[in-house]
Specification:
With 424 residues, the protein is of the alpha+beta class. It contains 13 helices and 15 strands. Strand 9 and strand 10 form a beta hairpin.
């Protein structure tokens, strides 16, 4: 049999021997079920920590990319400077607001190649009243001009946008988010043309925004858009800052457009040459990159935690296999006496340890995907399947099991059959 040519009998015998060794390995695993379960649990915990955190961060990253996809790589935003570190041991306060006049002058004479839209924040906790219904006091109110929607990636689902003359004349008009519509109107009612009231002031609905979903746990559909002048009348506040959004025609001109926008706004705000700008510039692509850097840090932490946990699992798995070798000394002696080679004995124990490792890895992957996507569901971000990390998890569990099982398998293969048979 062993002298036959490899092409005819050796391969089938190898498969048969492999199946037999798998059956013996499963029988051995069932015989030490408690120790096996504990080892599988430790391996699964390490893989779950890795997969769950990478799944959650991948979902968050996918959500942010979806949210900013409408902006593309063609937009930039000028806004009030926020905290920028410390000076003399004290934290720097937010910068001076961008005034209505500065935003209006920028929009009236923008740098060449830029489309400009203006907006101003009104309230995060407003109550909106319809004919018979009222919303909860959690509606966001934003003031915009006629260009804001096209520059910022929003769109009107039904009705129409504001016109430039309506914005200039401060007409009491409103665009509603779909959640506000659902609270104020019955399904068969058409909100376009209806009247709503904010702070007891009437506004005519001219359009309903297309659904936007949620971003960072906050709804983008629970809002009312008014004209810039209407927000100024509703929320008189000299410290209120305006945001200027700019869009370039060609993404390759974004850096050039950003430089031109900064230069124009510096002139309008009277920033001195050589000093830092008194406002912030943000680009949508930069926001995605910033978040990716943050999620990469979380992913690295998850990987380190997972590897450390797997290292501990490997030690436990090695101990289990050493105990298994000691308990099965007579079995090893009998098998060697019947002709089993050291290679076959070594393979037997390696198969057992790999099975334990892969069971732990698969369990950890399933639990990790469930846990990570439960977090994603809580944050209302998309369901993801991290195929690359799943493959890495299986590879790590395989490496852990082989590395921890090789020494016990080697010890088993080197046992003297005569001494092994003589041991009680």
């Amino acid at each position: 049999m062993y002298g036959a040519r490899p092409g005819r009998t050796f391969a089938p015998m190898t498969r048969a021997l492999f199946r037999e060794q798998v059956v013996i390995a499963l029988r051995s695993i069932r015989g030490t079920l408690l120790r096996t379960v504990l080892t599988v649990a430790i391996i699964a915990l390490g893989i779950m920590a890795l997969i769950s955190m990478t799944t959650a961060t991948s979902s968050l990253e996918a959500n942010v990319k979806n949210q900013f996809s409408s902006f593309g790589t063609q937009t930039l935003t000028l806004r009030q400077r926020e905290e920028a570190g410390r000076t003399g041991g004290r934290r720097v306060r937010t910068g001076e607001p961008i005034t209505y006049r500065q935003a209006a002058e920028f929009a009236a004479d923008p740098p060449e190649g830029l489309e400009v839209g203006r907006s101003v924040f009104g309230s995060f906790n407003e109550t909106v009243a319809g004919k018979t219904e009222r919303t909860d006091p959690n509606v966001q109110v934003l003031g915009i001009d006629a260009n804001y929607l096209s520059v910022s990636g929003f769109s009107v689902g039904s009705g129409r946008n504001f016109t430039p003359s309506e914005v200039n004349d401060v007409l009491p008009l409103a665009l509603l988010g779909v959640e506000v519509v659902e609270e104020l109107f019955a399904p068969w009612e058409d909100p376009v043309g209806a009247e709503i009231r904010i702070r007891n002031r009437p506004f005519t609905v001219v359009g309903v925004m297309a659904p936007r979903g949620r971003a960072f746990g906050m709804s983008q559909d629970n809002q009312v858009l008014l004209t810039l002048g209407s927000v100024r009348l509703l929320y008189a506040d000299n410290s209120r800052s305006y945001t200027v959004a700019c869009k370039v025609e060609d993404p390759s001109q974004l850096e050039e457009g950003a430089a031109a926008a900064i230069g124009r706004m510096r002139v309008l705000r009277g920033d001195r040459a050589g000093e830092a700008a008194s406002f912030d510039l943000a680009m949508s692509s930069g926001m995605v990159d910033t978040l990716k850097q943050a999620t990469d840090g979380i992913t690295l932490a998850a990987t380190v935690i997972g590897i450390i946990t797997l290292f501990g699992a490997g030690i436990g798995l090695m101990n289990i296999m050493l105990v298994s070798v000691a308990e099965r000394t007579r079995e090893i002696g009998v098998r060697k006496a019947l002709g089993a080679t050291p290679r076959a004995i070594r393979a037997q124990f390696l198969i057992e340890v790999v099975l334990i490792g892969q069971i732990g890895g698969l369990t950890g992957i399933v639990l990790g995907i469930l846990t990570g996507n439960l977090v994603a569901a809580y944050l209302e971000t998309p369901f993801v399947m991290p195929w690359g990390w799943m493959a890495l998890g299986l590879a790590l569990s395989l490496v852990t099991s082989v590395a921890s099982g090789y020494y016990p398998a080697r010890q088993a293969s080197r046992l003297d059959p005569i001494k092994a048979l003589g041991r009680e």
